[in-house]
Every structure is written in C-alpha cells, then in structure tokens.
From TrEMBL, chains A, B, C, D:
Top-rank taxon: Bacteria
Record-annotated Xylose isomerase-like TIM barrel domain positions: 95-268
Membrane-spanning intervals of the chain: none
InterPro entries in UniProt: L-rhamnose_isomerase (IPR050337), Rhamnose_iso-rel (IPR013457), Xyl_isomerase-like_sf (IPR036237), Xyl_isomerase-like_TIM-brl (IPR013022)
GO biological process: L-lyxose metabolic process; rhamnose catabolic process
GO MF annotation list: L-rhamnose isomerase activity; metal ion binding
Protein known as: L-rhamnose isomerase
Annotated keywords: Isomerase, Manganese, Metal-binding
Amino acid sequence: MPGGDLDRSYQELRGRLEEKGIDVDGVEAKLRAQRVETPSWAYGNSGTRFKVFPQPGVPRNPFEKFEDAAQVHRHTGICPSVAVHIPWDKVDDYGELASFAGSLGMRIGAINPNLFQDEDYKLGSVTHPDPRVRRKATDHLLECIEIGRQVGSDIQSLWFADGTNYAGQDSFVERRHRMLECLREAYAAMPEGMRMLLEYKFYEPAFYHTDLADWGQSLLMCQKLGDRAQVLVDLGHHALGTNVEQIVATLLDEDRLGGFHFNARRYGDDDLIVGSTNPFELFLIYVELVDAERRGARVDRVAYMIDQSHNIEPKIEGMIISVMQLQESYARALVVDWRELEDARRSGDVLRAYRVLQDAYQTDVRPLCAVVRQQLGASADPVGAFRASGYMEKIASERQGGVQMSWT
Amino acid sequence: MPGGDLDRSYQELRGRLEEKGIDVDGVEAKLRAQRVETPSWAYGNSGTRFKVFPQPGVPRNPFEKFEDAAQVHRHTGICPSVAVHIPWDKVDDYGELASFAGSLGMRIGAINPNLFQDEDYKLGSVTHPDPRVRRKATDHLLECIEIGRQVGSDIQSLWFADGTNYAGQDSFVERRHRMLECLREAYAAMPEGMRMLLEYKFYEPAFYHTDLADWGQSLLMCQKLGDRAQVLVDLGHHALGTNVEQIVATLLDEDRLGGFHFNARRYGDDDLIVGSTNPFELFLIYVELVDAERRGARVDRVAYMIDQSHNIEPKIEGMIISVMQLQESYARALVVDWRELEDARRSGDVLRAYRVLQDAYQTDVRPLCAVVRQQLGASADPVGAFRASGYMEKIASERQGGVQMSWT
Amino acid sequence: MPGGDLDRSYQELRGRLEEKGIDVDGVEAKLRAQRVETPSWAYGNSGTRFKVFPQPGVPRNPFEKFEDAAQVHRHTGICPSVAVHIPWDKVDDYGELASFAGSLGMRIGAINPNLFQDEDYKLGSVTHPDPRVRRKATDHLLECIEIGRQVGSDIQSLWFADGTNYAGQDSFVERRHRMLECLREAYAAMPEGMRMLLEYKFYEPAFYHTDLADWGQSLLMCQKLGDRAQVLVDLGHHALGTNVEQIVATLLDEDRLGGFHFNARRYGDDDLIVGSTNPFELFLIYVELVDAERRGARVDRVAYMIDQSHNIEPKIEGMIISVMQLQESYARALVVDWRELEDARRSGDVLRAYRVLQDAYQTDVRPLCAVVRQQLGASADPVGAFRASGYMEKIASERQGGVQMSWT
Amino acid sequence: MPGGDLDRSYQELRGRLEEKGIDVDGVEAKLRAQRVETPSWAYGNSGTRFKVFPQPGVPRNPFEKFEDAAQVHRHTGICPSVAVHIPWDKVDDYGELASFAGSLGMRIGAINPNLFQDEDYKLGSVTHPDPRVRRKATDHLLECIEIGRQVGSDIQSLWFADGTNYAGQDSFVERRHRMLECLREAYAAMPEGMRMLLEYKFYEPAFYHTDLADWGQSLLMCQKLGDRAQVLVDLGHHALGTNVEQIVATLLDEDRLGGFHFNARRYGDDDLIVGSTNPFELFLIYVELVDAERRGARVDRVAYMIDQSHNIEPKIEGMIISVMQLQESYARALVVDWRELEDARRSGDVLRAYRVLQDAYQTDVRPLCAVVRQQLGASADPVGAFRASGYMEKIASERQGGVQMSWT
C-alpha cells in the first residue's frame, strides 16, 4: 500500500540508513528470523458480550483453522506456528493434527488450557473454595501438559479468569494459597524444557478483583514455582496509563518475560488489531526487546504470540495486518541509532535522546519489510496478494454445513 | 440484617433525627413515594463475553419475568413496573402481557428497542452507511413506539451500540447526521406525553469510537429533537474519574435528565449490584436529586430504572439488594441538614459543608427504611423474607423444560 | 534528523505521492499557510508542584519572551504570533510591546486572563459564593478585553480553575448560574470580531469537581452566550480513554470549535511536547481538521495554539520540536487518499478504510516539511540550525541579573 | 456531629452489636491501641502547581509544627508521633527537637529524606546517569539514617520522584541497577531494628515513566535488599480502577507491607482528606488489616501514616477529620461478623458474604468512637472541641513575622 516503485523506495531507504551507519543486511537478517505465533481461536467467530457476528467461511474444526493460519504464514513468511486452546481445539488424535499442520508447513505452538467456561468455574478454578473444583482444574492443567508433551509444544500458556465480583465474596489470601498449591502440582508435572507462562489481567471477566491482576501478582507466583515459570504480557491487560514497555524491560531484566499476547486496545481489553490504537507504544516495546538482546538478555525465551478477537473485521486479513505491524515495529526498533542514543543519555540531553527514537519511529520501513518478505518467499504486499488469491471466496463457498467454530 | 430490635433502633434513630430538626414523617412519606423500575432482562441469564452461567429457575418467557419482578415488588414495595426489551420480550398480544402484569399488581414500564443484535447492524444501526439498514433500524424504533402506545408506556429508552472499531472506519460527522435524521422520524411519531430517552456510553461494544459516547453527544441530539427528548444516565457508562453527580445536576438544571440506569462498576460497564463499589457516589447522586426537587426542578420526569446484568449472583435476590441500596441512599440524602449546609457554603466553610454530607451519609438509616417497607405492606427484611419464602425452590422445580431466557 | 540527502528523499517521496494522485503542490501550499501560536509562558520557568527547575537564559520580562518566540518562528516559519497571559505579561504600555513584537516580525495573539492565582480565588473566581470576588473576576475579564482591543487581538482565551475539592463544598447548579452571569457581562463587552474561547479541563487544580469539566459543560455555556463563544480543546484535559478527535469533529460540525491548546500527556495534564506520547492521535485530529475543511466547515475560525509547560527540557528547542510535530501531523493528514477512503467506507470495507489512514500515517513526510520550511525562508533542520546558531549560549550569558519569569 | 444523646446512642449500638456476638470491649481495646502518625509537612502551606494558598497561623519552624500536631493528638488521642522530612525539618540539634516533642507528649516518627528538590535531581537522584549525583543522593540517605539513629526513629520512609518525561530519555534497566546499588549502601548502614520503606507512585512528577511505578517495582527492590526493606502503600499512588485492598492483602501475606500513606483521591494524587472520595474502599483496606491480624500476620510492623496536602482547607481541622475517618473505618472493620463471613464464603453464597461486609460498613460507629476517645482522655467531638478551643485564633495572632513553612 505504500505505492510507488518498491525497488526505488527500498534503495532510497537503504541508502539513507547506511549513511547513518545502520547495518541494513543485519537488520534484514533479524527480520527474517522474526517469528510470530497466531492463535487458533482468532480464526473462529468471536465478539462482545452483546453479539457475535458470524462470518462466511469460518472454520468448522481445528484442521480448517490451521489452513487459515497457513495463509497468514504464506503471505507474511514469519508465522509458522499456531497456539491451540483446549478444549476448543480438542481432537481425538493430536498426532494427526500435528501431521496435518506439518503438511501445511506449520506446527502446533503454545497450549492454552481453558479454566473459565465450565459451570463449575463460576466462582473460580484453581482458586475455588471447593477442593473438588480445584482438583478438576488441576487435572485439566495436567491434561494440557500431557498434550503439550505429545505434540512437542514447550509452552503452557495459562490465563486465569479467576476473581470475584463483590467485596467480601472470598478471601484474597486464601485464594492465592489455593492457586499456588495447584500450580505447584502442574509445574512439577512439566517435562524439562517446558515452560509455564502466567498471564495477568487487570479486570474482566471478574469485576471486583482478579487474582492475577498485574505483573506483580504473576511474578510472585513464578518466583515460588521455579525458573521455568514466567510472566506473559498481554498488551490489553493493563490499567489505563500504564507504561507497558517499562514492565517488559523489568521482566527481561529479571529473566521472567515468558512471552506476549499482542493486540491493541483503547479502554478495556479490546483485542483489536495489533498497533491500531497507539503504534508508538508498540514501537517502544520493540525498542526494549532490541535493547535487551544487545545486553545479552535471554530474548530467545520470549514467545511472540498474537491474541486478538476479531469482532467486525475479516479474520485472516485482520491477522495479516497485525503481523505486518509487528514486523514494521520491529524494523523501526532495529534502525535505532544506539550509539547516538547512549551518548545523548550519558550527557543528559533529553531532547536529543527522544529525537533519536523519533527518528527511527518516523522512518517509513515498509519497503524494507516488503523486501524481507520477498526474501522469505512470502508476499511483498500481503493484503493485496491475499485479497487477489481468491482464498476468502473459496472457503466461503466450500465450508458449507457443519458448525462454525467460536471462541465460546 | 442490622440485627437487634427494630423498634428500639428505629426510635433511637427517629429521636436523633428529630433533635436535628429533620421532619421524619416527611422523610417517610418521600420514601413511600419512591419508585424504582426493574428490567425484564435482569431476570434472564446473562454474563460476560467469556461465559454465561445459567441459573436454576430462570424465566422461559416474558410472563415468568413479570412473576419474578413481582417478587421484588412484594418485598420492597416500591417496584411496580418493569422495563421491557423488544424483541426479547416480544409477545403476540401485548394486551395479554399488560393484563397479566396487572393481575400481579405490576405494569409495563419503559420500552427498550434493540438495535445491536441483528447481522445487519454489524457496522451500525441508525448510523449505518447503507440507507437500507437505517430504514430497518428506524422501522424498529417506530414499531417500539407503537408497542408503547398499545401498552400505555410513556418512555422509549434508546441505547445505541453504534460506533467503530478502527480509526478511519467511518466518518464521525456523517454518522451524526444519519442518526439525527432517523431519530427525527421516530420523535415525530411519538404520541404526546411520550418521551424519548437517549443513553450514552463511553465505550463497548465499539472500541474506537461510540457515536453517543458522553452526555454532551446525547444532549446535542436531544436539543435538536425537542423537549421530549432527554438524556439517560447509566452509572456505568462514564470514563474513570468522572463526577457523575455533577452531570446529573447539570442535566436537571437544563431540564434534560430523562432517567437513570442504575448499576455499579469498578472499571468497565460492569453492571453490578447498585451501590456495591462506591456507595458514597450513589448517595451524592441522590443528594443532587433531593436538592433539585427543593429548587423546583421537574424531578417527576426522571425515570429511576435499574440496569444490571447478573453474572454469578442469584437474580431476584441481587435485584432486591439493589433496590434496598437505592432506598437507603435516598433516605440518607433526605436527612441532609440543608440549612446547615447552605450556611456553611455561604460562609466558605469547606470542612463544615463536607461534614454535613458526611453526617447524613454515616447515619444508619436501615431501621427507617425497614419501617417504611412495613408501612407499604412489604418486608422489614426483604432478603430474609424472600429467602424464607421458598420462591427460589419453587421456580427451580417448576420451571423445567423450555428454554431459559437470556439477554442475548 | 532523517539524515541522507534531502533532495533525493524529497524527490522519491514526491514521486510516490504523485503516483497516488496527491496534489503535492497543493499540499505544500497548505503547509506554508499553516500557523501555530506559541505561548509566552512556555518561555519562562515552569514545573510541577514538587519543583520548578530554573534554566539558564530564561526571559526576565515579556519582551525577552518575544525574542525567544521569534527564534521559534525563525526556524519553523509558521509561528508569528504569541499568546500572552495577564498579569504575567502585564506591561505599562501594550503599544510598546506590540511594536517590539512587530520589529521582530511577530505579533500578539490570544489574551489569557488569569483567575486562579489571587488569594481571593481560593474557592473560585466567577463561581465564587461571594459576589465581591465575582465582581473582581469579571473586572479582570473586562480588563483583558480592553487589552485585546488595544493590541488588536481577536481572541479571549479563558480557562477557569474553578471547582471544589470536597463533596458538598458548594452547589454545582448555583456555581453554573454565577459563572454564566459573569460571562454574559464579559461577552457583551467584547467588540465585534472578538471571540471568547472557553476551555474545559477534566481535573486539577480542583479535585472533587471542576465547573467546566468537559466539552459538554463548555458548550452549554457557549450556547447561552452567543455564536462568538466557542470551545477550546486542550489535548491534555480529558479523561483517560477519551476519543479527542471525535470531540473535535463534533465541535467543528456545530461550528463551536474555537481552537486548540496543543500538548501531550500520558496520564494527567502533563503538558509535554506535542505528539510525544501518542503521535497517532495527533494525526487523527488533523485528519478531522482536513476533512472539515473539505466539507466547508469554518476552520478559519480555529486558533492553533500550543500550551506546554516545560519541566526538564530546554524551552525554545522543546517548542521547536512541538511545532515540527504539528507540521508533520498536518502533512500526513494532507496526504490521505480521500477518494479511496470514502469508497472503502461506502462499501463497509473496514480494513481498507483503516489502511488508507495507516498508509498516510506511515509516510515519512519529513523531507516534504523540510522543503516547505526552506520555501518559507526558515530552516530545513530547525533543531540543528537553532543549536548551531549560538542563541542559547548568547542568552545564557546576556540575561544576567533580574528575575527569571515563571508561570506562577 | 451525629447529634443526639451520646450515651443513648452508644447503648443502643452496643446492645445491637452484642446481640450479634461482637465483643465490644475487645473492639474498644483495639481502638484505644490504634495509632496514626501525622506528617509535619501537612501543617505547613501546600498547594498545586498553580497556586499555594497561604493560611493564617501556619508554623514557621519544626517546633511549631509539633505544637500543631499535638492538637491533633489532644483531640483524637491516637496521634502521638510525627513524621519529619529532611531538609524541611532540619534543625541544628535533633535532641532539642525530640525533647520539645516529648514535652508535648509527642515523639518523632518516620524520617523522610528529600531527593527531589535540588537542582541536581532534575534527571533523577539514585537513578541519575551521573555518578556524582548518585553519590550525593546516597549521602543524603545516609544522613537521614544517622538522624533516625539520633532521634530513635526506626523507619526510613523513601519516596523517589525519579523517572523520565520522554521516551528514550534514559534506560529503564540501567536506572534500576543504579538505584539498587545506592539502596544497598543505605540499607547496609541501617542499625538493626531500623526498616526501610519503599514507596511507589504511578505517575507525577515524572510523566513518561516512574522508576518505582507500582508495588511490583518496589517489591523487587525490597526482595533484593533484605527483610527490613518493605513496601509503603500511598492510597493515592495507583492507576484508576486498581484494587488497593488486594495489594494490601498480598503484601501482608508476603510480610512486605511496611506501612501506609493515607489520603484520598479521585483522579491523580490529590492528597485529600482520608476517606473523602470513596470511604468504602478505606473500610475494605481495614478489613484486610483486621483479617491479617486474625491470621497471625505481622501487622505490628505496619506503620499507619497520613500524607495529605491541604490546599484549601484549614490544616489542623483537616487532619483531625482524617484521623477520625481512619478510626471509624477501623471500627467498622472490627465489627465484621467473621464467623458468618467465612460460612458464607465456604458455601459460595456470594450475596450473603457481600452483605456481611455491608452490614458492618453501614453501622454508624460514631458513638463507639466518641466513647473510645473519651476513654483516652481526648474529645468526644474533636472538631467541635478544637473549634471551641480558640487555638486557631491564638496561632493566627501569635505567629506573626518569620516565614511560614511550606512543603516546597
């Protein structure tokens, strides 16, 4: 969509970056190595509490979700894995699902247990006052670890909707202790090399308190569990005004950043297309990731996952745009002039330091990203290519009968 | 639940209030005249976007909803009317529904059109770019006006979920003009004596912008429509930190306060039990209402309606508690010492003025409210009496078969 | 700072825009006609309630403030006017100040009365319970109108710190009436051609309620005063999560947008450099302004003013950066492909519409802005040129003795 | 101010509580043992960034501040200690200040270093890029520890204004490391029995990021320092919507709650009279404290301190009201029916559990608190007694000449 002649724009940009001393080949290598995992549930119908708008061609089973995810990978070149959700993606034979994924050039990524859609979980899952419910919840965690072992997934990605709606409803402290006990059992069951990511969320669906409401609550749990327990940062799960990039930097500094759920929000947990509300914030998060790598932090342990919930926009195209915005944000962070930045910081030159970041942010990196995608055998113009491919029309006509999958 | 001997507590309170010069008989008369409307949809199942937890005994049709609402009225004495939602409460014969309500000592209150649960409304209803969809939406408004005329309801209570999710998606200005055109047609169709209330909402289910996002947007529409168009204030529909009582006072001063949707929230539009998160705010809203009546504002045109969405708590009991908290807040506002307050304000005595309100707020008015309920033939202890009545057990066993009603 | 060869980058950009059908000459003409007013108080010392950090070379009188402002104009080419604050900029002979400004190629812009720094205003100015204080406040408004008449300024820019800190402290309604009475007297005193802008602010320095807390409160006042009363939008004066561009569009649609106070914020009214926290929001505001001009709205009546309060950054350079970010945001809004956008909206193509804006936003317009500044006889690289000019060193050494000006 | 006959109201309340099984003598004993520390700086002038309104009779030195604080203790009976701020309360001879305090029945409480009002700290204190500034900051910490040792204070209460205003200005991670290094040196210098409290703050005076922005950031520092480093919770230092009582409960559970700075806020860090915006929240915090004591948590290590900044209200009276509201909140928390609450929680009876808290909250405990104050030899009606005492008139006439103390 930047239009014009790609090669001319690319050469102009490359020349400009090289004059500033940026190693453009190195930047491109980093961009080729970038990976983003998309979530199976984003390909099914989803919506708000008021209405789920069904869309034509939506998958009717986990296999069709992988087909759709493969389209995102085909056009972007950096999305070969798919996070699955149990029981939404429950199948009789996970080996069959993994093989099918492999046949598409894809693989199964993080395993996401579901502990919020059973009648039993009305007052909590691993925090529930009733030991029977906690047993059931823990068993589900164990089941998901077993699935992960079977399909070769090394990440258990846990989000707990647990919380209360009214003051007094339950004891904050006892709920912490109950959760810890359940998680310890699950942690102990994980094979070596598997990690447990603990997501936090400021509010919703619990309205008075959420047991893991912020990164501090998740981090405390992780500290008690062990070093393969890490915090998962979902961009939409913070109080308004929170500096998310600072949290990212802190967790990286503590070696406790397990991964991201990328999406965008204006007010609540809106689960919009990544970067669509404040793209500058997304850039600043990537600046921290690039900086951490420079410092030698273990960024290889960070899982980059998208978690968005399309309400009105076409699902596959919405996902492609999110991936592109992650790619462009990373590219901008990669062209930051660190020498200049560090010099400005050292000399207390506030405005020069700020302008170093602004300079990188304002750089139109789209030609660079397009060329990188071509290098990967994907599309210079992913949205245009996807629209032209006829895939949407094909699935809309072929996926007749059956029940569309939904995230609820 | 205050416990102890009601009569002794009541006499102690009455004596204390009279010593301060409060006309306790007058206060009781006001409390007996208080009316609160409950919403039919609160008796059906509801929930969050993640899960709706069904409950035993939930109504399977509008008639059963009225039966449940009659329980709330039976125990509180001040809730004889029920707001209905079309099409959730659609029946073949509204006369039959009205008669049935009458047989229970109840009546139909405000009519609430639904313009957010049809596939056509994915991008808006009265604001939709496509004139066909706007026609459909307007026809539904006209239908609801006709139903209102049939059942003798004088309030059309309109909430528009209309908005956009992404910057650029549609034109703010054109959407305003489209909405105004549709509302003008509906307004013109209202019989004399019928009012149109325009609710606003800060966010959700639209995430980038909501067409009627705040009281200013609603008020501008009302000004263009006529003096029977008024603003509806839902307590959960404001930005964090908003001074809601100031909005209430301003709208009363402009004769544009049409009514309330009472509920409580901590962060989003949580639709919790009224007064459960910040009871002091609820008290301050009632202080403005009492003050407005003192000034001669038309408080008779204010509709007091509850709009809550029970997620985990029993529906009828939750509603009873909300009604009691409205009653207690009103009672506290009625025992404000206005002479002292005005004197403190005039002399710029900030702390004395504040403490006059604190004094009223801290007063334990529960004995007074219990006595008033007895005077009305309702229950001194509504929750206890309802629990003891066996109604819950009765409907849980009788309402077998059929499909429970839900708000979606 | 984009680096590289300006002409090459400019030609590449120009070519790309023209291929998309953008009239680049027209865009440049608009950019040359852009005007931004800087505030005299931003050149003096300012800070937070905790500390004001004084800076070397800060002006000691209004004349030196104009000298500094002239530097901003010299390097940006679009800032010939300066908003003044009474009494901070009080001088014996306003004619002399105006002449001095003229000698620098500058002029006096909006007049800002001060109604918050006198002991008398502790409980309010035009809303104060005591008529003597209201008289004093109104007299100050009249004095400022007279100053405006003398110096040929056509804008009275009013911000009221009025509000209360505690529930009960004063009556919302009586305060509204008192304010209206005072403003009516001031409005009547304005010569034809003079406008009164009413700023609103969500909170601070009043903490329980602010009399003009949102655009709705200001608009109601303006409606009662007359069509030369308009609302002023300060970007930092909204609740978190507010869609400011929607407010801008609505006020333009009602012909009630009087002007802006540009700055940036993350949480409170941080008064940071424009565009430094969410540059995408700034772009979207300019999109509405460009769209309004396309529709024929009276954008000529919109005053574009900066109101920032430098805490730690050098004042003149901070101001230059703010002006550049306003220029770049406007430039991006001017390269929106409206035909494509309207087509996407009409066909309900949500993602295409969003991407049209993204395409304009991601365009690196810096070469275009640099060329425009050259056309205006200003600096291609304003920050670099200002730093190289030696002005900072000059004033730091020359402005010895006397008392630095401060905004308090 | 509840009015009426105190003894009659007290007997009625006592009877009602005893019928519910509350040990009223035990409650009174707890209330007599309650302690609240007031801050020396609240007796001096303070204000917003826009204006500090001076008040008659304000202290001109630390000794006069202790005189004023002694008035608060005289009328409430529970405020014998005063937090001091260095250098605001710097004196040549701390022994003399301590003796003077003793002669008033008072003592010196927590020591508060000031690391935000020196020119050197513009870009940070213990986080500053320049080692010279960090040395200076650390030396001040050491100085304050020495003062604490001299006056027998066992608490160092640290608040860091450190942060940045612009993205890129400095490195989050390097600042963490610099802070930790400085704090380690200070921690090591503390005598046994002295504790270091680390306050966090969501925003202000830094606007882009604050180094200790939330409880998680403070807790991580404390964990690295040792078990005499604990977190200090200031009620005004959280993002909107934060559940503060949950944080309190969590820190108590981790034995890391060092103390409170009590105040109230609606939006920012408004530093209003305690309990004046959401008294229900204050009650819920005390419920957690009472619950923690029941569980055997070390609540004896919690320092209860007020930190408010009076803008428009008289200082001593404002402080008295804050202390009363803390007393009343504690009293309400002490009459919670824990047996009933635990039973309701165990049986998943959400509404019963909520109503147990509501029952305690709605109880008008003022007669009980008045009697407790009488038992302590203080005033049944502290505000009335203070107003009648003539103290305000006395200091207004006596404290002529000299410079009023201010917090800046």
